[in-house]
């Protein structure tokens, strides 16, 4: 089995590539990644010299390149994770979100169709469903109501992938997961940003009243669900994947401060994110019943381990927060 993972140098992708090498050692994993600010080969340092991990730097939108590598490596299946992934960046500059997430995905689907790929796993997001009120949870048939340029671009990609199944009979499975956390997450996302700021005694910027709720999923649990969906999911189906751990942002920020031994006075309430979704929650009944998946991590244990990893690996986040990221970070916070 030869699998193409796109975005394999990002947060979830790098965890997935390592998970696949451990769980399916006979497979060859071809990793196509453009190495944007979010992609970092250092995340895969432990695979150096591994003949069954092939890294190719390139854009998913480059059809010639994608078709060529699919042919040279006899790709059987695609796990598509490459994307622009950060909501705040999509508010500052939506264009690249449409280019990569929508047009890039379509090019990849077209190449997969042309090369007779046997399965295409589209990694989508729960943000396609928009925001929930205080109760209820997203099921696979909840209406699609994305709010941000990021989530609208992911919804478009998700629907184009399903259209390739319905129209062209490409074997497509879509997963829609909730907020991931764990090692190697870029420190622009809530949990690593707060850990890094706390370690530097910098203010912790909580948007709005801090009462927004996310349903947290450990990245290793997500990788397990993705492999199950690849191997056992039914073509044309959507599977919601959620960790069953709904938490308010403010409670997470306070938990992080407790774990690193810093005072709550570092919390700074800042202007809310425009169009900020209030609450996400996943009904995971389908993935549990059909694929037999349940998360292994509890949030409290997973958060403690994740925070410890950031505390123990300052060299990793110091390098990734330099350069281009720093410039973005400063633009972001000048506007508040
Ligand atoms: P990330 O931003 O950490 O990584 C994205 C990777 O894609 C990077 O390595 C980047 O270099 C690569 N990439 C970007 N544009 C590319 C292009 N045009 N061609 C090739 N490679 C390109 O993202 P992540 O958090 O690991 O998310 C992975 C996927 O999971 C995304 O599709 C995202 O929408 C989805 N998702 C993420 C979460 C989450 O909580 N992180 C939740 C739901 C869904
Ligand atoms: O500085 C911050 N302060 C803050 O209060 C940041 C970065 C975030 N927040 C809030 C906004 C959200 O309510 O924390 C929550 C989580 O924010 P993010 O980490 O930016 O994630 P979110 O917007 O929920 O989107 C994430 O989950 C769905 C991923 O980034 C997406 O790629 C995924 O599709």
Question: How does this model look, in words?
Answer:
The mean pLDDT is 96. α2 (63-72) runs parallel beside α4 (95-114), α4 packs parallel to α5 and α6 packs parallel to α8 (249-260). This protein is of the alpha/beta class. The chain has helices at residues 11-23, 63-72, 87-92, 95-114, 149-168, 190-199, 219-232, 249-260, 285-291, 299-312, 314-320, 324-334; strands at 2-6, 28-33, 53-57, 77-80, 119-125, 172-177, 180-181, 204-207, 213-215, 217-218, 238-241, 246-248, 267-270. A seven-stranded parallel beta sheet has the order 3-2-1-4-5-6-11, sandwiched between helices. Strands 7-10 form a two-stranded parallel ribbon. Strands 8-13 form a two-stranded parallel sheet. The chain starts with a strand and ends with a helix. It folds into two domains: 2-181 and 216-241, Rossmann fold (3-Layer(aba) Sandwich); 190-214 and 245-278 and 299-334, Alpha-Beta Complex (UDP-galactose 4-epimerase, domain 1). It has twelve helices and 13 strands. Bound molecules: nicotinamide-adenine-dinucleotide (NAD) and thymidine-5'-diphospho-beta-D-xylose. The site of thymidine-5'-diphospho-beta-D-xylose has 16 residues, from α6 and β8.
